[in-house]
Design brief:
Strand order of the largest sheet: 2-1-3
Order of helices and strands: EHEHHEH
Low-confidence stretches: none
Family: Belongs to the peptidase M14 family.
Helix content: 25-40%
GO cellular component, one term: extracellular space
Pfam families: Peptidase_M14
CATH superfamily: Zn peptidases
Mean pLDDT: 96
Protein name: CBPD Carboxypeptidase
CATH class: Alpha Beta
Strand content: 5-15%
InterPro entries: Peptidase_M14, Peptidase_M14_domain
CATH topology: Aminopeptidase
CATH architecture: 3-Layer(aba) Sandwich
Number of domains: 1
Length: about 120
Amino acid sequence: GSVVASYPYDDSPAHKPTGVYSKSADDEVFKYLAKAYASHHPIMRTGKPNCPGEEGETFQDGITNGAQWYDVEGGMQDYNYVWANCFEVTLELSCCKYPPTSELQQEWENNRESLLAFIEKV
């Protein structure tokens, strides 16, 4: 896990594991939507999720092109965009895939304004 908004493409023609920006035809729209979410999240907007084992990982403005972060061949985000014209942004909301119950209220607080801002873009 991490704390970042990721947008297409997740796959790249080179299929390198990381570091290849894979621009879609709607790249600017995807960046706009990802920033709409990230800019309202207190951790995500810093671009420094500080996840255990990945403390040095950073994301400018709290967003990333999927393939630039890590290449995912055959992912649903790309499939839905290419074949169904469905615009998806993947939201990584926590360093921990399954946060304990005691942290859920804080997770809600961290994401409430981001969710509202994202819904407003619809």
